[in-house]
Amino acid sequence: MKKLLLYAALSALLLMTSSCDFLRRAAGRPSSADIEAKKEYISQIEAQRKAEAEQKAMAMKYTQDSLAAWEFIAESGIILTPSSQFERLDTSLLESGYYLIIGTFFNEYNAMKTVAKVVDAGYSASTINLKPGYTTVGVCQSDDIVEFANSLKKVREEVFCPKEAWILVR
Known about the structure:
Elements: H1 2-18, H2 20-26, H3 32-76, E1 79-82, E2 98-105, H4 108-120, E3 125-131, E4 134-142, H5 145-155, E5 166-169
Parallel strand pairs: 1-5
Antiparallel strand pairs: 2-4, 2-5, 3-4
Helix pairs in contact: 3-5
């Protein structure tokens, strides 16, 4: 019985000492669990760096697109007019940052006829009251300058868009 107990103890000791983790710990090295945790940490860091690089690339592309849009607007000769030039314009009523103004009307009926033409052509239009008695018709409204410039390219080719159209900037 004593021999059997001795063999069992030696077998257990042999199994304990034969595992790689036991030997690694005894030598002051990281265990398998430590190595796996480190691998996971490294993969998380790599994923985070990749996401940051993608964000930087997207920001750079948006910046380039925005600069190209502003360059297009500058080259087109369209006048940019800030909303601050209109004393009685309530900018809180403006839903977007940019509008292509295709007409200013004293008669609101004429403004609504122009809105109907724009809508019939497949674009959205809105009316803006600049000062008492004057209604403007704005198209291509957008908060994004790149989207606005792309819409502007299309609208400038339409029959309803006059050469003297201008841009209202909120």
